[in-house]
Amino acid sequence: MKPPRFDYVRATSTEEAIEVLAEHGDDARVLAGGQSLVAMLNMRLVAPEVIVDISRVPELATITRTEDAIEVGAAVTQAATERFEGLAAHLPLLARALPFVGHYQTRARGTVCGSLAHADPSSELPLCLAALDGEVVLRSSRGTRIMAAADFQHDVLTTACEPDEMIVAVRFPLHVPGDGCAFTEFGIRHGDFAIVAVAVLANAERVRVGVGGCSDRPHVTEFPLLDGDALSERLNALAWSLPFDDDHHAGARYRRDLVRILGRQAVEAAMRCPRRTH
């Protein structure tokens, strides 16, 4: 299929992109990597009057380390993030998750912020942001606002981003030296969206478990360090608490089994991580 007709604006600055969004609102869409938007255009799932291309806006194509976070601009590709020097040390969870995101060819075009904007509940990057309790930076002609990951994704393909707003960056909190982390998922093929994905952060007292593919958004929970039967019982309770449904990919019972199996693998892997500083 071919996309519907639209006007195309290649923005040269963030301000220019925001001006277009302020003028057109719901009738405009932002294009960064296009891995989600182009497919939706071709299937006529969206029909904007204006496409605002931000892929060549210099100030949006940077990755910056701040005192407590890694900030990834809206035009930064997933592949560029994967190659970021020090990613494994400063954001090991993201470093473990990125190879599961599509294929290298799609990561070379797809952006980190674009995946968050698309808000597929089976996508790896929204799950990582939720597990890390990161932040999304939004900007419009009305100003800038910063939203916690838990408040940003509302539903399937639905976020808190207003029609005249755009994501300009996402902030992933820096890894705490000595803590552990793990990421794993199961999909039909490598590069497909996960049927179930699990992200885990662990410290000396607690584990934080994020599950993707379970409902309309990633689900995150915390509980004390457990092992043996106690861990199995806690993961079983987690599996039954999630609102799984049967679909053409897998049944609810199968997904609950995956939460138990992958959850245990990820928790144990995170707890085995060497307790050392980077």
How big a fraction of the residues is strand? 25-35%
Q: Look at the structure and give the CATH class of the largest domain.
A: Alpha Beta
Q: Percent helix among the residues?
A: 25-40%
Overall geometry comes to globular
Give the radius of gyration.
19 Å
Average pLDDT level: 94
Strand order of the largest sheet: 4-5-10-6-7
Main beta-sheet strand count, sense and barrel state: 5 strands, antiparallel
What is the terminal-to-terminal distance? 49 Å
Number of domains: 3
Order of helices and strands: EHEHEEEHHHHHHEEHEEEEEEEHH
Overview of the molecule:
It is built from eleven helices and 14 strands. The chain has 278 residues and is an alpha+beta fold. It folds into three domains: 7-53, Uridine Diphospho-n-acetylenolpyruvylglucosamine Reductase, domain 2; 58-173, Uridine Diphospho-n-acetylenolpyruvylglucosamine Reductase, domain 3; 180-272, Enolase-like, domain 1 (2-Layer Sandwich), CATH 3.30.390. The strands form four sheets. The chain has a five-stranded antiparallel beta sheet. A four-stranded antiparallel beta sheet has the order 11-12-13-14, with helices on both faces. Strands 1-3-2 form a three-stranded parallel beta sheet, covered by helices on one side. The longest helix is centred in the last third of the chain and has 21 residues, at 252-272.
